[in-house]
Amino acid sequence: MNGQDLSTVDPEIADAVAAERDRQNDTLAMIASENHASEAVMEAQGTTLTNKYAEGYPGSRYYAGCENADTVEELAIERAKELWGADHVNVQPHSGSQANLGVYLAVLDPGDKILSLDLTHGGHLSHGHPANFAGQVYEVEQYEVDEETGYVDYEALAAHAEQFDPDMIVSGYSAYPREVDFGRIQAVADDVDALHTADIAHITGLVAAGVHESPVGVADFVTGSTHKTIRAGRGGIIMCDEEYADAVDSAVFPGAQGGPLMHNVAGKAVGFHEALQPEFTEYAEQVVANAKAIADQFQERGLEVVSGGTDTHLVLVDLRPSNPDTTGKTVESALESVGIVLNANTVPGETRSSFNPSGIRAGTPALTTRGFGESECREVADLIADVVDAPEDDATLEQVSERVDELTDAFPVYE
Ligand SMILES: *Cc1c(COP(=O)(O)O)cnc(C)c1O
Where (6S)-5,6,7,8-tetrahydrofolate is bound, by residue (predicted)? Predict the structure, then answer.
């Protein structure tokens, strides 16, 4: 079978893979958690490292033949330490959710208490939603954002912590447009003798580039995904002080996972290397500038931007004030039909279901990767507003679709 390429061995999968490449080139990826990894990252992921069992950690593996796996993992760790300034790094979690599982397993017992942000206010399933293992194993209560301002209600969080007495407070969110005050949350955690996990899954790249306050060295644990604002391929990461290093490492393996996905660890190493280059700071700054341009243009067009703007890579829109009869799903489908791919999202004070919520979430990491600046992003915001106002109007959809084609042709992602 070696020597035969994918299209010969498995034409059905080869076709789907090629179609996905075309889809990414031909549409605007505005799901805030998505990005486009470089060819180099994907090349590292598609290697013989996928064959290798490397249970354990560099220099102390359960299997022979791990010298190259060691090199790859050591480089990934070294680069992550340099990027985020962490004492200890574990690059083995298969995803951001697995990273959170690793931390919980390292320091919590079943039945311990977690205080985290409500999912409909921007939290994440792995912070203790009943559908996730964390919600089933731990006792979870949730804090909220202030529905008026859209900002985390830090005072209510402190009062809630006082009353609930959690073992772990989780910060870091999936649909929160504002800078998080990690220091303030750590102080709340310290006051009630709780540990604090700052889950920076969405903002890993912004934190690495210094365009968002860093929780590293502040929060007890920092977890993240490696495929969102940092373009290091799909995976997860945990950072902590040396005092928790052994507990975290044994919670990830053998606690929660088997052999590491060494091909993905290689992808992480390459993506981290790219993020250490000076251009990455410019990229991260542009991601935020682009999101601000979109928020601004949405407001010009009369849309209600949650919290009145953004400090990050994403903009959350509450459709209820401007378009009370239009749901997030209606807009999501209409936009998808014209090549703009974003997601319907719950908003603070949600009155609809999470399957058909009242908002949309728009992110700029992938648009910025393909070279969009503020002027292109303002135009995209206008196109989105056109569709929000007339999601069933064929003429509008036709016009927007043509313009999306021109923009994607002018800014290709992959050869
Ligand atoms: C995306 C995300 C994760 C992890 O997601 P994975 O798909 O498991 O990588 C964890 N926490 C937050 C806040 C997220 O947004």
Answer: 119, 123-125, 242, 353-355
Q: Which of 343, 330, 401 is nearest to 29 (CA)?
A: 343
Measuring CA to CA, how many Å separate 20 from each of 27, 82, 277, 357? 10, 34, 29, 27
What's the token pair of residue 290?
């682009």
Determine whether the shortest distance from the Cβ of 201 to ligand 1 is under 6 A: yes
Whole-angstrom distance, CA of residue 135 vs CA of residue 64: 39
- Which of 114, 199, 212, 237 for mutating ligand 1's site (highest number of atoms within 8 Å of CB)? 199
DSSP helix/strand/coil, 174: coil
pLDDT in tens, 216-239: 999 999 999 999 999 999 999 999
Residues 128 and 135: beta-carbon distance below 8 Å: yes
CA distances (Å), origin 228, targets 36, 79, 252, 334 = 9, 17, 21, 25
Kindly report the number of other CB atoms within 10 A of residue 389's CB atom: 16
Handedness of CA 190, 192, 194, 198 (dihedral sign): negative
Q: State how far the alpha carbon of 233 is from the alpha carbons of 7, 14, 32, 38, 228, in Å.
A: 23, 20, 15, 9, 8
pLDDT digits (tens, 9 = 90+) for 89-145: 999 999 999 999 999 999 999 999 999 999 989 899 999 999 999 999 999 999 999
**C-alpha 73: how far from chain center:** 22
Q: Which pTM does this prediction carry?
A: 0.97
> Of 73, 20, 389, 110, nearest to 235 (Cα)?
73
Give the distance between the most distant pair of CA atoms in the chain: 64
Q: How many CB atoms lie within 10 A of CB 182?
A: 23
Q: What domains are defined for the chain?
A: 44-275 (3.40.640.10), 279-410 (3.90.1150.10)
